[in-house]
Amino acid sequence: MSIVEVQETNKMIREMNLDVRTITMGISLMDCAHTDMQTFNQKVYDKITRSAEKLVKTGEELERQFGVPIVNKRISVTPIAIAAGSVHTDTYVPVAEALDRAAKEVGVNFIGGFSALVQKGCTKGDRILIESIPEALAVTERVCSSVNVGSSRSGINMDAVKLMGDIIIQTAERTKDRDSIGCAKLVVFCNAVEDNPFMAGAFHGVGERECVINVGVSGPGVIKRALEEVRGQDFETLCETIKRTAFKVTRVGQLVAQEASKRMGVPFGIIDLSLAPTPLIGDSIAEIFQVMGLEEAGAPGTTAALAILNDNVKKGGVMASSYVGGLSGAFIPVSEDHGMIQAVQRGALTLEKLEAMTCVCSVGLDMIAIPGSTSKATLSGIIADEAAIGMVNNKTTAVRLIPVIGKDVGEMVEFGGLLGYAPVMAVNSFDCSGFVNRGGRIPAPIHSFKN
After folding, report:
1. Does residue 92 come out as left (phi exceeding 0), alpha (psi in the -120 to 50 range) or beta?
2. Sign of the dihedral through C-alpha 324, 209, 397, 371
3. Which residues face 25 on adjacent strands?
């Protein structure tokens, strides 16, 4: 890095909220397999605490050395429905508790991988895991869960989609004393990726190495400040500015990732350059839209603006690192983005507009509070819609909806920390149960036949 790059980076950190959002260590649990629950849990706990023993300490040392804030240190593990498949049990809640203890011991704030991949059908272990989710997320603090219900190659497992509508409601009920926060740790995917460092959807894929370091870098504030310098200029200038800025941000992540990998003796996996906002003013995707020329997120042109942002972030990122992966692009969570919250409150942003934006964003409907009275069929219908967008467009889509028990449209919900706060949004209440209850699998689209 040249001295000019160093100076630019220091300015981005001081004035523009640039940070490394997460260093996530992926750990394979495949060698922990055992038929006895207690033995399996002990092997899992031992492997995680041994592998991640230096993760938090290394992250803190890198923060001090490079002056770059590293906000989160996290762990992802092999989907538990796979790793615990041979355990003789009817619940994986004890496994979730073991993961929680291990996460607490090594000092990470979240551990992902209480997950199942059921895009084509459920095994016995898959079903046990899914049915364990509500209790598991209620009795643990740091465990995150995800379920992949569809893919562009397999279609959509509508039996799993129907089941997840019920599971989300159960999870909301079990954590209703905390504004149903359990649902903030549960994601339903289509086309889930194996190297995602961001929670709540992170898991360590079966095609990954024994242990890897994945880094997620975020810089909405940096992009916003750069675009303020080119207000009113043409789209070519806009796109070039985003690309150049994304390049610089990714270089910071590359530096931190390589150094963390070297110090811990763990292979470097990927850099995920996803513009992940926070509730802080100035660190918002919605504010980037405003600098682009929109009055509020949700105004006509918002989907086009997001498409420009997402595409050029990726173009700039891939020039800065040979291993850009994960999701990479721009997240559009509501509760974690000050500008999105404001847009909802002003009536500029609706659930339907957010769904349209998911066609071109990194993931999907993310951190959206909805009325606690929302039916499980409606939740399943929304999941099916998002999965269809992902399946047909060959991209990752996801749903992280939070039906807040006891609250209705317009009321505020406080989740705290990076999870932020959100107004409860209206949901289309027309019935879709006749569609959801058909069961079976929606076949893959024609473009899935690529062999």
Report:
1. alpha
2. negative
3. 75, 213
- What is the DSSP pairing of strand 155-157 with strand 143-151? antiparallel
The answer for residues whose C-beta is within 8 angstroms of residue 374's C-beta and 6 or more apart is 169, 403, 427
Give the whole-angstrom CA distance, residue 71 versus residue 115. 24
> Which residues lie closer than 8 Å to 240 by C-beta, 6 or more apart?
none
What does the alpha-carbon distance between residue 263 and residue 55 come to, in Å, rounded to a whole number? 10
Q: How far apart are CA 303 and CA 292, in angstroms?
A: 12
Query: Quick one: which H or E segment has residue 412?
Result: strand 412-414
- State the Cα–Cα distance between residues 328 and 216, nearest whole angstrom: 9
| Helix (H/G/I), strand (E/B), else coil: 329 | strand
Residues in the chain: 451
Beta strands 155-157; 441-442: pairing state:
antiparallel
The amino acid sitting at 122 is C
What single string gives the DSSP state of each residue in 59-115?
A: HHHHHHHH---EEEEEEEES-HHHHTTT---S--HHHHHHHHHHHHHHT-S-EEEEE
Q: Write the pLDDT tens digit of every residue in 142-175.
A: 999 999 999 999 999 999 999 999 999 999 999 9
Distance separating alpha carbons of residues 210 and 28, to the nearest angstrom: 5
Please report, to the nearest 10 degrees, the dihedral formed by the alpha carbons of residues 126, 384, 220, 283 taken in order.
Answer: -90
DSSP code string of 141-192: SSEEEEEEEEETTTEEEHHHHHHHHHHHHHHHHHTGGGTTGGGGGEEEEES-
CA distance 288 to 8: 20
Retrieve residue 125's tokens: 């272990």
Closest CA to 259 of 66, 418, 111: 66
pTM over 0.85: yes
Tell me: the pLDDT tens digits for 270-321?
888 888 887 777 678 899 999 999 999 999 999 999 999 999 988 888 887 7
Distance CA 187, CA 296 (A): 27
Q: Which two tokens stand for residue 58?
A: 């290394």
In angstroms, how far is the first alpha carbon of the chain from the final one? 42
